[in-house]
Amino acid sequence: MDSNGDDLPKKTQHYVSAVEVARKAGVSRSAVSRAFTPGASVSAKKREKIMAAAEELGYQVNDLARGLLARTSRLVGLVVTNPELGYRSHLVAALTKALIHRGSVPIVINTGRTEEELVAAQKTLFGYRAEATIILSGSPPSSFVELARRNGQPLIVLGRSETGADDVNIDNEGAGREAARVFLANGFTALGFAGTISRTPTTIERENGFCQEAAARGANVIMGHGGNSDYAGGQEAARQLFAGSDHPQAVFCVNDLVAFGLIDHVRRHTSLRIPEDLSVIGFDDIPEAAWETYNLTTFRQDPAVMAAHAVALLDQRQAEPDRPPMHDRLNTHIVVRGSARIPASFKL
Amino acid sequence: MDSNGDDLPKKTQHYVSAVEVARKAGVSRSAVSRAFTPGASVSAKKREKIMAAAEELGYQVNDLARGLLARTSRLVGLVVTNPELGYRSHLVAALTKALIHRGSVPIVINTGRTEEELVAAQKTLFGYRAEATIILSGSPPSSFVELARRNGQPLIVLGRSETGADDVNIDNEGAGREAARVFLANGFTALGFAGTISRTPTTIERENGFCQEAAARGANVIMGHGGNSDYAGGQEAARQLFAGSDHPQAVFCVNDLVAFGLIDHVRRHTSLRIPEDLSVIGFDDIPEAAWETYNLTTFRQDPAVMAAHAVALLDQRQAEPDRPPMHDRLNTHIVVRGSARIPASFKL
DNA sequence: TGCCGATGCAGAAACGCCTTCTCGCCATTC
DNA sequence: GAATGGCGAGAAGGCGTTTCTGCATCGGCA
């Protein structure tokens, strides 16, 4: 004998629909619908009865059908390349959390940066009538922006600006300038920059800010460019920067991973000590920067803050679809640790 | 004058439907549908005409409506806690990539491990008629498994086993035993284990394998348990292991992050050198393990392989929905680097 | 060359599931 | 007793797929 003879455990093998719930609760199909719509006119007693029946049957409103009628879903697309790397992994985590908290459902399109891959991602997201698209890597072609606009799908770009799209950026150039000022306040005259060949707006801005400020103050900057903005790229940049006899006294790295690669290379292949003989500043302040080995002075870029701003931008865009593109610019602040000291005389 | 007077650029502000494409191409609505269905009976000429019209209008099949009829979507849910941490970030990246490659669309539910959070995640995924759910963290309650089964939604659990669900696991216990054998082959008699208080099946298996093998061979194991299985947890474990005078000669760490914390603590707060005075073995082989600072000997767990197996399991489950639960067990292999040497006499 | 059968393509209708709108009824209150 | 408000029931709509039916064309055979 089963625990209850109410429902024989036949293989349903399909989702229960509102009709079944209605039948079980002895109400109409639309009553069930209203019971699940906040603010609809159902008596408390009936709603309770419906909810009990729904619970028992394991009913769940079909968001596909709901979205079909609403002409939009609660899905939000995150388009990203290499979501496992450095700062980006934290940004993806923060965004998914913020979106879920908002009631949205994040789709992560892990893909390349080429135009056709981005277009394919957009097609997928259009197919599911995504509420919005957030681009974390790569530059959407103008057709992408145009198509999103035509279909009324908000498009938010992070870490770069795109004509016609909303974006969240940080003050990369200002941070680059500040890095230069910090070094110069220490009396260094030979500066170095560790960047990459594959340049993005973000890295270009950091480089420009640093070099321009250094040039304006009469300092020389030696450039090192690794392949990618990761650990290996940092090693490669270090190889270039510390190959000759006149190496820099202080290096600004395009991000923390590059700084780690550079530091490790310097420690292993040169006799320079950090920070006594060489100061290093990174960018991002990922958790590894605080590890004892690196104890890296770096610019903090809080992923939770950036995610919150992206979501806020999305809210505003949905409230005013026809408003001109919005540009959100966040500030960073330097986190002083052991790899580069700041003289007391220096004012931030 | 506009570039072409064909379409005045009015704000559509809605997605184009198959009806509009049909009108434009001068065919019926069902012809459009067939044109987008592979293998349907449409003449090549008509298909081409339809495709051209679709392209011009920016038409995209509504997957919401498609899923409504198919009673399932191509969405696959990934339920994960702290997707930014260590190995998990790589696993999430590998899974999203593998799923997209398969033609599925990954939804990432970044949430806690509590029962109610998991149930909420399941409701969301049921609502969108997700093709499958893959759980990366946390233990689904039995109601979760039962509901997934009733609704015919495949459920795949990674890194643990759950009654009634398919899973992919790795041989944690075997790896733990091998770590012990490696240490013993070096002649060490005082072993250490760096784990955490918050234990998961994964960490328990590694610990058990290591301790049992050591005990079986007459070696003593000192235990250190940090708070979480991350860098800080490794530091904390190190504090416990190296507090007294009789510290271990070799430590097996529950994962790489813990190993990094332990190594950094040892370097800073003791005079022990690695590997001369202390051997360390980690687990996961995340990219940081290969960094020069750590040069960590560790067990490789390839995220791409695990993702491929998870997807393969999904394929099999969809092919044979009624088949009993499948358990996939992957092997790891040790990657020998500088933090722990393996004597020539040792056979793997 | 003409006719019949077979085949293939196109269109119409129904279905899937939910939401919303409208209509009607009942209960409550003055 | 009548009017009003609130709740319930039924129907339509949103979009793509699938099935069924009809029509036309092609080929084969006499």
CATH architecture title of the largest domain in chain A:
3-Layer(aba) Sandwich
Oligomer type: homodimer
Low-confidence region ranges of chain A: 1-12
- Count the helices of chain A. How many? 12
CA distance, first residue to last residue of chain A: 77 Å
**Cα-based radius of gyration of chain A, to the nearest Å:** 27 Å
- Morphology call of chain A: elongated
What's the CATH C level of the largest domain in chain A? Alpha Beta
How can the largest sheet of chain A be summarized?
6 strands, parallel
CATH fold node name of the largest domain in chain A: Rossmann fold
CATH superfamily of the largest domain in chain A, by name, is: Response regulator
The largest sheet of chain A has its strands arranged as 2-1-3-4-5-11
State the secondary-structure class of chain A: alpha/beta
Q: Fraction of residues of chain A in helices?
A: 40-55%
Biggest interface pair, counts? A-B, 57 and 58 residues
> How many strand elements of chain A?
12
Query: Which H/E pattern describes the elements of chain A?
Result: HHHHEHEHEHEEHEHEHEHEEHEE
Strand content of chain A: 15-25%
Domain module count of chain A: 3
Task: Give a summary of the structure in a few sentences.
The structure is a homodimer of 348-residue chains. The first copy, chain A, has 3 domains: 18-61, no CATH class; 75-170 and 303-331, Rossmann fold, CATH 3.40.50; 172-301, Rossmann fold.
Structural summary, described in words:
Chain A is α/β, with parallel strands linked by helices. Chain A folds into three domains: 18-61, no CATH class; 75-170 and 303-331, Response regulator (Rossmann fold, 3-Layer(aba) Sandwich), CATH 3.40.50; 172-301, Rossmann fold. The first copy, chain A, is 43% helix and 17% strand. The first copy, chain A, is built from twelve helices and twelve strands. Chain A has helices at residues 18-25, 29-35, 44-57, 63-70, 86-102, 115-127, 142-150, 172-185, 201-216, 231-241, 256-269, 303-319; strands spanning 75-80, 105-110, 132-135, 155-158, 166-170, 190-196, 220-226, 250-253, 279-284, 297-300, 327-330, 333-335. In chain A, the strands form two sheets. The first copy, chain A, has a six-stranded parallel beta sheet, sandwiched between helices. In chain A, helix 2 crosses helix 3 (44-57) and helix 8 (172-185) runs parallel beside helix 9 (201-216). The longest helix of chain A has 17 residues, at 86-102. Chain A binds a DNA duplex (30 and 30 nucleotides) through helix 2 and helix 4. Chains A, B: GO terms for molecular function: DNA-binding transcription factor activity; transcription cis-regulatory region binding. Chains A, B: It comes from Phyllobacterium myrsinacearum. Chains A, B: Pfam families: LacI, Peripla_BP_3.
